[in-house]
Amino acid sequence: MSREIALKAEHIVKYFDQPERFQVLKDLSFEVYKGEFLSLVGKSGSGKSTLLYILSTMDTSYEGGLAINGQALTGRTQNELAAFRNEHIGFVFQFHYLLPEFSVLHNVMLPALKLRRKSRAEVEADALELLTSLDLRDQAGKLASRLSGGQQQRVAIARALINEPAVIMGDEPTGNLDSKNTGIVFDILRRLASERHQTIITVTHDEDFARRGDRIIELSDGRLVRQ
């Protein structure tokens, strides 16, 4: 049975122009499958974070082609890409970027309220269900700033899931966490991939984290050296 492709990158080339022209990504092509847990690894300067920003559609100054869920994204306008991101891509960063003056529940609801695909009551019900699944239901009414770092990162995962995105992208999602919370976050992402068939792409320096996923893509000097 052929596997369903969630993301396809074709001949991705990227240059930086400051302080002088420099090629940072060199003809990268690969596919990521629905329900796959993929880790992007490589030394600092290898191009992995640059690649993630291209895959997430936030960087559009590259050569090559990018498609997510069969939709070609290269060449679309910034407004089109912003709308696509909100609906189809969930983000989990090293720093959770929660709004500290809002409650946990409101933080999780925000991307879905922006999308306006469901009523506020439906969005709230979805958010509470996600918080329950991440063992955070009892924190829903608290200000996000009152949570521990590990709890805040779990709230960020709930927020990333609220619009049922095609792909979750993580930029060092455990980089700020101790080993216990790193294990908790990994287990959550692993469960999302295996049980909900969520596609997960993470940049990580944590070799153990990367090794426990489904596949590793390693970059070195802008080239794909292992997958």
Brief account:
With 227 residues, the chain is an alpha/beta fold.
Give a written overview of the molecule:
The structure is a single chain. The protein is an alpha/beta fold. The chain has one domain: Rossmann fold. The protein is built from seven helices and ten strands. The protein has helices spanning 48-55, 78-88, 104-115, 120-133, 149-161, 179-195, 207-211; strands at 5-16, 22-33, 37-41, 63-68, 71-72, 89-93, 167-171, 199-203, 215-220, 223-226. The chain has a six-stranded mixed β-sheet. Strands 2-1-4-5 form a four-stranded antiparallel β-sheet, covered by helices on one side. Strand 1 and strand 2 form a beta hairpin. Helix 3 packs across helix 4 (120-133) and helix 3 (104-115) runs parallel beside helix 5 (149-161). The longest helix has 17 residues, at 179-195.
